[in-house]
Amino acid sequence: xxxxxxxxxxxxxxxxxxxxxxxxxxxxxxxxxxxxxxxxxxxxxxxxxxxxxxxxxxxxxxxxxxxxxxxxxxxxxxxxxxxxxxxxxxxxxxxxxxxxxxxxxxxxxxxxxxxxxxxxxxxxxxxxxxxxxxxxxxxxxxxxxxxxxxxxxxxxxxxxxxxxxxxxxxxxxxxxxxxxxxxxxxxxxxxxxxxxxxxxxxxxxxxxxxxxxxxxxxxxxxxxxxxxxxxxxxxxxxxxxxxxxxxxxxxxxxxxxxxxxxxxxxxxxxxxxxxxxxxxxxxxxxxxxxxxxxxxxxxxxxxxxxxxxxxxxxxxxxxxxxxxxxxxxxxxxxxxxxxxxxxxxxxxxxxxxxxxxxxxxxxxxxxxxxxxxxxxxxxxxxxxxxxxxxxxxxxxxxxxxxxxxxxxxxxxxxxxxxxxxxxxxxxxxxxxxxxxxxxxxxxxxxxxxxxxxxxxxxxxxxxxxxxxxxxxxxxxxxxxxxxxxxxxxxxxxxxxxxxxxxxxxxxxxxxx
Length: 512
Ligand code: FAD
Ligand code: DLZ
Ligand code: SF4
Prior knowledge:
- The chain has helices at 37-40, 47-66, 85-96, 109-115, 118-122, 138-145, 153-164, 205-217, 234-252, 272-277, 282-294, 300-324, 343-346, 352-364, 369-383, 387-397, 403-414, 431-437, 458-469, 471-474, 481-489, 492-507; strands at residues 5-8, 29-34, 70-74, 101-104, 126-129.
- The chain has 512 residues and is mostly helical.
- Helix 9 (234-252) packs across helix 11 (282-294).
- The chain is globular, with a radius of gyration of 24 Å.
- The chain starts with a strand and ends in a 5-residue tail after the last helix.
- Residues 10-12, 34-36, 39-40, 45, 50, 53, 85, 106-108, 111, 402 line the site of ligand DLZ.
């Protein structure tokens, strides 16, 4: 029987409430999910990321079949698989003689742009529905941004708190009398603090089959495939969320910015891949954190700090991405043009902080925010690495990486390559910041207390060199007034020595 429609569900659209599935009728409509080479290797995705997406897609297909749907599932190794989403849609439409295609708008501009032309190429109606899994739609963000000289997350976040009635007191004012408790969230880890060890679901038969496929087809991609610790079903993602709420959220706020050599996850939730592919709903996560606070189980700085990441940052970068695309990733405000050093792909560097942050990334397809921003991103910023290569790296190596969230974080927040559209100042820091927030420096061959000389921490001279070489562009930024005053106080000899040191390090960047 010819179906009434075919509904295409993408690898990051694994939500039962998805707009394209909302009115789907198991008796009349068919569903398509497709594993395709074009999506799996347009950047060299980490093998765990590919396995996570494929296994979650296969489990979601099973869930839909249990609900009575006819699901067409293209496996990557099906001989008939055309290798692209368009090819698979075309093939299955022809096979079924389906009269129309329905889908939810893709989260990435690249695919959205292509799919809006599919109707012409397929010669049938293609209905593209809004993705309402975000708490601020693309249009609502554009309305909020309209006429604003500067966009700042903090003001967007306050509006979102009000709009969604999150962490407000009886008078509709922010709980605890202030919107943001970030100043309380920068503690270094005290010695001997117990870090809760998180459980991981054992891979089931579906995941094991996917792991074999990925091992065979993507052996050349950087990153370790196993141990594979990701949840791939809604139930297991909810169990991970539950575990976080009870064991890690209480300390999340205090140690949000801390880093530790042997504890890569600390008190972070590690749920971003689940929210991003639709296994968890952002509002469900926010409400769970607020409930822990209301029940007196976690302090306000923990609940607020966590909620701000999702209701604030996540929605803000999504809105910004859609506001600025397609040109967003093309600017290069600081004229950074140094190629990405090879150690980004191997972790093979003597800089202990980078060795661990990159090593964790390659081992787990995950590193937490401060490792991404203040170690890896900070190095890329200070060394002037070319934005396009840094973007492609971040998009490849994290299980949670999708361009809508990766690009603003990389291009705007870490590299300041958008000239300040996203963030009010570059997140540039010397080794002192890393020393204060981590135990990395203790085990490093470089000496964080030195800025010049053969053992000097590279972050120190690179920091001053970054400020000096970008003085014309950055000195007017009020948030950088203090560092520029300090730079001006150095003698000419000291300035020259720091810049020489930085140049020497940049000349042999691959050997650092
Ligand atoms: P937690 O620290 O527990 O935070 C809770 C949740 O808040 C996260 O799960 C995530 O959904 C959200 N969140 C936190 N910070 C951000 C942020 N800056 N932007 C958007 N959402 C945020 N996040 C991605 O999901 N995908 C990416 O590709 C990605 N690339 C990044 C690249 C760079 C250079 C930087 C600096 C950050 C990037 N982030 C990205 C944001 C952030 O680092 C991750 O969301 C976070 O580390 C995920 O780990 P977690 O779930 O333990 O987060
Ligand atoms: C990231 C990814 C990968 C690795 N593979 C697939 C796939 O085989 N099929 C699919 O539908 N989606 C995949 N994705 C996600 C897409 O590349 C893309 O990032 C999102 O669908 C954008 O919304
Ligand atoms: Fe990193 Fe410098 Fe500390 Fe070494 S000394 S861990 S390079 S900040």
